[in-house]
Amino acid sequence: MERGDKIKAGDVRTASRLIRDIEDSIPEAKATIKHIFPYTGKAQVVGITGSPGAGKSTIVDGLIETSRKKEQTVGVLAVDPTSPFTGGATLGDRIRMQRHSEDIGVFIRSLATRGSLGGLSKAVGDAIHVMDAMGKDVIFVETVGTGQQEVEIIHYAHTVIVVLVPGMGDEIQAIKAGIMEIADIFVINKADRDGAQKLQRELMTMIEMSHIPPGGWKPPVLTIRNSFKPEEFEQDLRTLSAKVREHYDFLISSDLIGDRQKRKRLHELNEAIRFSILEPVLEMLVKTGELDSMVEKLVKKESDPASLAEEIAKKYLQGCF
Amino acid sequence: MAKRKIRVMVAKPGLDGHDRGARVLARCFRDAGFEVIYTGCHQTPAQIAASAIQEDVDLVGLSCLSGAHRYLFPQVVNLLKEKGADDITVIGGGIIPNQDFQKLYDAGIKAIFVPGTTLDTIVNWVNKNVKPVERK
Amino acid sequence: MYFAKEVLSQSSELKKKWEDEVRRVVGKVPDQKARWSTVSDLEIRRLYGPDDIKDMDFVRDIGYPGQFPYLRGNQVTGYRGRYWTFRMFSGMGSAAETNKRWHMLLKEGQTGLSTAFDFPTLMGYDTDSPKARGECGKCGVAIDTLEDFLQLVDGIPMDEITTSMTINPPATVLWAMYCAAAQIKGIPLTKIGGTIQNDMLKEFIAQKTLMCPPEPSVRLVSDTVEFGTKYVPRWNTISISGYHIREAGSTAVQELAFTLRDGMEYVEDVINRKGLNVDEFAPRLSFFFNSHVDFFEEICKMRAARRIWAKVMRDRYKAKDQRSWWMRFHTQTAGCSLTAQQPYNNVVRTATQALAAVLGGTQSLHTNSLDEVMCLPSDHAVQIALRTQQIIAEETGAANTIDPLAGSYFVEALTNEMEEQTWEYINKIDEMGGMVAAIEKGFPQLEIADAAYKFQRQIDSCEKIMVGVNKYVTEEEIPIPLLEIDDKVEEDQIARLNAVRRKRDNKAVKKSLDDIKNACKKGENVMPSCIEAVKNMASVQEICDVYREIYGEYRDPGLY
Fold first, then answer.
1. Hey, is A142 helix, strand or coil?
2. Pairing state of beta strands A44-50 and A159-164?
3. Which of C215, C558, C560 sits opposite A228 (nearest CB)?
4. Rounded mean pLDDT of C399-428?
5. Confidence of residue A40 (pLDDT cuts 50, 70, 90)
6. CA of C211: which chain A residue's CA is closest?
7. Domains of chain A
8. How close A74 gets to chain C, by Cα (Å)?
9. Angstrom distance (rounded) from CA C169 to CA C547
10. Phi and psi at residue C254, in whole multiples of 5°?
């Protein structure tokens, strides 16, 4: 299959066209993904999440730089929200990474959420596969950053970086949004601002209080100083980059990588099942008008959701029952 | 098959930083339902071409007010062509004298919009002329 | 303003009568639109009267020219001693070509020079930098080394004519060249006069001519202010600019507020970093405003600007010297108001904008040429623009009396309203921790982006009118002669630069660049080593690369 081969050879144009097809739900895209799937699983996937204005893109930009200095090839998937009103989207993360745009070892692709919740795009899983199959050593996935329920990233990433800034009430936000539990590394950005030390102390206390199994990974709390001071910023980024690597090595040495892979694959399977079973069935129910009449029945209390679902399963998934 | 969503890039080639037009247009494209990538100021043609391919946009809108459009605009078209991406439509705008229009059309710029163009004119042009499904 | 009680009560009776009459007439002949507003979308009432200015205090709020709060102007004699400076912004192609245009303008009666540089120079790159391809000489004059600069000022009496240079990130370098050129001609630094724009904050906010991050950028500005205060006393080391903020799409109030708050940021930095007394440098601060198409709004903006600045300097920074309270400013008519359609209409726009600037009390004025919306102006177009100023000065009588619109109910009320709204912005930015902090948050950038988008939408929906664009449109194209910059200028300029590099003493260049580097690192003033470096023929980019290396490079976050 020519398209898959081109991707394996690292062809950016083919890869970006394929990611587009995935986003636009072009059926042929699935076939190519199947073809390249055996060649995935080699890249380290790093998620970056945190509230808007926390400086995620600037940190990704810095991580690209440090990765390139280590001669790693890099993929970046930057997700921004789709406007629910117009369907349009401002994909604004790339702008901070433009200095790498000509580097052939770096492939940056922006994705719009297109209605999907959880801080990512539906296409993100397959887009990671594409970059992985291209042979990228490390793939950074930057989430939307609404600060709400952006936990989905753990299904895709080996390592999750949670970025916080002092003085934004982030700590509370983070706890509320449940992103504290998903962090493998905490980063306090703009750490030369007031309140950085306090935030760092609070986070460390919280980590101490949380239950970490013996021999488990204890999330470090790193700081990054004002990105306007080039020397300091680079130094802090090197530390972060080393931690990211250390976490990956830890996953491997402690055999946890298998767990992460399993978690990732399980999620993918769920998604695939939803895509190949649930969605066609739902589509059929809409087409035949069955869905409408079932809702009618529920309104009139002639049946209940569980019974109706069993009915559907019997009709459309005969083999199982 | 789902309908293809239009993806566009608004880019400022060269050293010119007058980005009022570019930013207004980027916002307008978003409100027209497109996915918009804005490169920011001070981009080289090579950066713009590489970004357009990585992002798989259907259209690149170039904005230049410094007078350097005669070199910069064709350069973007050429670089896209070199990389086999000549199915990406390139349009331009800014401080561009009439006498340069033909040269730019000849170089592969599909449309030129100068001060005084309404946003609707540009959006309509894009909707009419940019067909993501027909790209190679 | 004080009105006798009887006057106010009579006025309110008459007003009621008039209002009844308005209702009756509007019932028959409805207004053309429901809402009338300025180009910045400030709502304007049908009529203003005593009520609208009854709270004004004559001494506190109005006063006399040359007296606090300077609402009516700085100069006690107004324009009678001398008109504003006719200062046409010009520069194109090579230094030699620009020098020719300058001599032409001086012959035609221009009274000050103003330099437009090309983009490589503005951004601190040499003509042969890969980033500069295609830009050389296109929107201004190309300067790489002192050799070009000497050609630029050839035959110009530097001790008589003041020169303004629109230069920002590399301001230290170009000013160093001016100083060096004067010294080479045997003119002491105390004798030269002029302005460098040198306002980096508005670059982050609006124009995006960028080099280093905000903090070190302000530091370089403070270096020039200190150096000027000590050694070049007739130089305005900074021209705090609202022009570009407005061109980027801001409202008049935003232009006023962000410009004044920028000015305050510089004052604070010089006081804190350099330890200068405010009265040592404040008299040399100058400003630069846009004169847009809404006649009264612009006049009121300029009047309000003087009054706010006087209060800021006296009350907030405790300046004692009256000259510190003055706001002196240059004005340029609004480039963004010009249209490519029916270009001759631009002459009329520019004329009314220039008149507004004069009635607003500007000290210096540039009038745009009718073709500037398409390219650099031709000789003929520049001449019309210059003549526009001369007609206003010599024929219209606008300069006969000082601040002729003072006391107008409308003008005073709008001046007050704009001042109030400006203070609201200033207070908000203060709360954010100052302008640098506000810029880092993207606050002014996004406020301007919103205003620009709103205006464009209003044009599209014909809520606001641009003649020839969305009303009174003609299909026919009106050809006008345009100036073309030969692409060969780039080749020639690169050859010149290479020739300089070959014949200069490269060891001396390296040493002077190291001196600049050390000054940066130690926090010393860079100006002395900068002047030394340009004399050794170090190029604009070589010096700016030192800044970029030490201070880092700033990239535009592209907020919209």
1. strand
2. parallel
3. C215
4. 98
5. very high
6. A228
7. 38-254 (3.40.50.300), 269-320 (no CATH)
8. 21
9. 10
10. -60, -40
Over pLDDT 70: what percentage of chain A? 93
B42 touching C (Cβ < 8 Å) = yes
Question: What letters, b where the CB count within 10 A reaches 16 and e where it falls short, cover C4-28?
Answer: eeeeeeeeeeeeeeeeeeeeeeeee
> Which of C440, C460, C480 marks a domain boundary?
C460
Range of the domain at C389: 59-460
Residue B105 neighbours by CB distance under 10 Å: 12
Cα separation, C336 vs C250, in Å, equals 11
Q: Indicate the pairing of strand C163-165 with strand C112-115.
A: parallel
Q: Which residues in chain A have their CB less than 8 angstroms from residue B7's CB? A: 20
How confident is the model over C411-417, as a mean pLDDT?
98
Q: Within this chain, do residues C185 and C229 fall inside the same structural domain, yes or no?
A: yes
Spatial distance between the Cα atoms of A30 and A126, rounded to a whole number of angstroms: 9
B&C contacts, CB < 8 Å: 131
- Tokens read off for C461: 């929906």
Beta carbons of C139 and B24 less than 8 Å apart: no
Domains: count for chain C: 2
Interchain pair B33, A16: CB under 8 A: no
Q: If you ran DSSP here, which 8-state letter would residue C116 be given?
A: P
Helix axes C409-432, C443-460, angle to 10 degrees: 140
Beta bridge partners of B93: B63, B113
Instruction: List C-alpha distances in Å: B81 to A106, B86, C263.
Output: 21, 5, 48
Q: CA C4 to CA C8: how far, in whole Å?
A: 7
Round to whole Å and give the CA distance between B44 and B67: 15
The one-letter code for the residue type at C486 is D
Here the ipTM equals 0.95
User: Using CB atoms, which chains have 3+ pairs under 8 A with B?
Assistant: A, C
Among C178, C154, C181, C144, which Cα is nearest to C492's? C144
Q: Which CATH superfamily is domain B7-134 in?
A: Cobalamin-binding domain (3.40.50.280)
Query: C396 in a domain, yes or no?
Result: yes
Token pair 């002029």 is at which residue? Answer: C194
Domain boundaries, chain B: 7-134
- Contact yes or no for A60/A163 (Cβ under 8 A): no
Per-residue buried b or exposed e for C434-448, using 16+ beta carbons within 10 Å of the residue's own CB = ebbbbbbebbbbebb
Domain CATH code at residue C252: 3.20.20.240
Same domain for C131 and C21, yes or no, is no
Task: Give residue for tokens 């940021």.
Answer: C265
Q: How many CA atoms lie within 13 A of C89 on its CB side?
A: 25
**Confidence at A203, pLDDT banded by 50, 70, 90:** confident
* Residue C383 lies inside a defined structural domain of this protein: yes
Residue C470: CB atoms within 10 A of its CB come to 18
Which tokens is B71 given?
Answer: 């070199």
Residue C490 domain flag:
no
Span C539-558, pLDDT tens digits = 999 999 999 999 988 887 77
Closest approach of A228 to chain B, Cα-based (Å): 18
Same structural domain for residues C20 and C119? Answer: no
Asked if C73 and C189 sit in the same domain, the reply is yes
Question: Chain B neighbours among C 413-472 (CB < 8 Å)?
Answer: 449, 452-453, 456-457, 459-460, 466, 468-470
